[in-house]
Amino acid sequence: MLQVHETETCSVAACAEIVGAKWTVLIVHELSEGPRRFTQIEHACAGISPRTLAERLRWLEGEEIVVRRSYAESPPRVGRRRAV
Prior knowledge:
Blueprint: H1 11-19, H2 24-32, H3 38-44, H4 50-62, E1 66-71, E2 77-82
Antiparallel strand pairs: 1-2
């Protein structure tokens, strides 16, 4: 890769790194429809393992693409929505 296309300096390369991972585009698309629970995303992305989904969601949270919301309920409820 040319130096000009390194992810630290090129927004296109950074975007490609984010959405280039398998399942990521489908997860982001599902969240673009509004807040979703983990199981809702899992069912919408038929074939994804819970481990892979959790890893992708944690990574997207770390990149501040999605925001995780926890609700004080019993049983615990967690929703995710895309970042503003």
